């Protein structure tokens, strides 16, 4: 296709002088990647400024003289309820407290000079709440600030912020440096310049694509977009087939969600499929792994079940059950996470009414072979 295009257009002399089609195509790709990154950063800047401004307003509203104690105990709860009803996800009490903390820690962004902070212009911007103007003073993504807020030591936090700006660190790189105590190691080092230069070099896993920047859970949440995508076409196809297969088993399974997100601490997870089993009166969480089954997979599913039990389970419903499906090329595993159920009778009932693990394995292998042959 490309060779034909090149041959045809060389005859017509329509390609730019001195450029091959390969160079022309690569230029377009670079342009699109730059545009996507710019779009992600622009949204993140507005998001961060908006959350800073929300935090500022919460703090100032809470500090109204004698009413401070009263507002402090109920304001966030009431605001969370109102904003969630109007805008949906992203405004839990935890998130609002994070915005309040963000303003508290960054009342005067470090990118501003002391002269500007004391100037009339800054006071005017703060008073008018001009988000687009405030945004330029928060060059990092909201995900980066969320990670920085976990650093208790003020000097360490400022160090990581400065190094992220200086080195253009991704959130992954920032997280790795904080987790490995880069600040403390730098203080102890005799050759601080060398360790700073070494620390600024990203590892392979630190690099994020433009798509990942746009699909940042915080960005999707802020824009009110659904997060129903998969990083792997085969995995997505298997998940969709499993959804249909379970619904066709009978009327017991009711579909709830695909790629349902949950947040534990400052980390995001996704459960591939969530069903409700009508006879068992419980949620069924399904996680699909393309690779080999590991104990870490079991631990993660128990984490999901514990979270679902606390946050997704309604009164009078039974505890959720997890199903781990590992679809290796020549081998498959299906395992239910039944530990933690209140009694053996309930566990036996679960095993009786849920699909047989062997049947699930056979269906998984058959489906994978069909998909790979297409």
Automatic annotation (TrEMBL):
Residues 212-363 form the YhcG PDDEXK nuclease domain. Residues 28-185 form the YhcG N-terminal domain. It comes from the Bacteria. GO terms for molecular function: nucleic acid binding. It holds the Pfam family YhcG_C. This is DUF1016.
């Amino acid at each position: 296709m490309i060779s034909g295009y090149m041959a045809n257009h060389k005859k017509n002399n329509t390609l730019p002088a001195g450029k091959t089609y390969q160079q022309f195509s690569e230029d377009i790709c670079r342009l699109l990647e730059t545009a996507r990154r710019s779009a992600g950063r622009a949204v993140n800047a507005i998001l961060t400024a908006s959350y800073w401004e929300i935090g500022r307003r919460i703090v100032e509203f809470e500090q109204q003289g004698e009413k401070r104690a009263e507002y402090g105990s109920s304001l966030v709860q009431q605001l969370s309820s109102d904003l969630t009803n109007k805008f949906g996800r992203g405004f839990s009490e935890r998130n609002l407290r994070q915005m309040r903390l963000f303003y508290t820690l960054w009342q005067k962004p470090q990118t501003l000079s002391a002269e500007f902070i004391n100037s009339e212009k800054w006071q005017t911007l703060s008073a008018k709440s001009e988000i687009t103007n405030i945004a330029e003073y928060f060059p990092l993504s909201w995900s980066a600030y969320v990670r920085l807020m976990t650093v208790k030591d003020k000097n360490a936090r400022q160090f990581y912020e400065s190094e992220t700006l200086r080195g253009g660190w991704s959130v992954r790189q920032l997280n790795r440096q904080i987790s490995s105590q880069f600040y403390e190691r730098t203080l102890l080092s005799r050759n601080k310049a060398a360790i700073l230069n070494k620390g600024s070099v990203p590892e392979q896993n630190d690099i994020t694509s433009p798509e990942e920047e746009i699909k940042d859970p915080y960005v999707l949440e802020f824009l009110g977009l659904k997060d129903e995508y998969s990083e792997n076409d085969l995995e997505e196809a298997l998940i969709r087939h499993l959804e249909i297969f379970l619904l066709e088993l009978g009327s017991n399974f009711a579909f709830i969600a695909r790629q349902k997100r949950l947040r534990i601490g400052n980390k995001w997870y996704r459960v591939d499929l969530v069903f409700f089993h009508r006879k068992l009166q419980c949620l069924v969480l399904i996680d699909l792994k393309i690779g080999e089954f590991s104990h870490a997979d079991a631990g993660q599913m128990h984490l999901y079940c514990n979270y679902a039990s606390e946050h997704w389970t309604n009164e009078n419903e039974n505890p959720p059950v997890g199903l781990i499906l590992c679809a290796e090329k020549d081998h498959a595993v299906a395992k239910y996470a039944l530990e933690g159920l209140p009694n053996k009778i309930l566990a036996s009932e679960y095993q009786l009414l849920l699909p047989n693990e062997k049947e699930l394995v056979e269906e998984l292998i058959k489906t994978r072979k069909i998909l790979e042959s297409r």
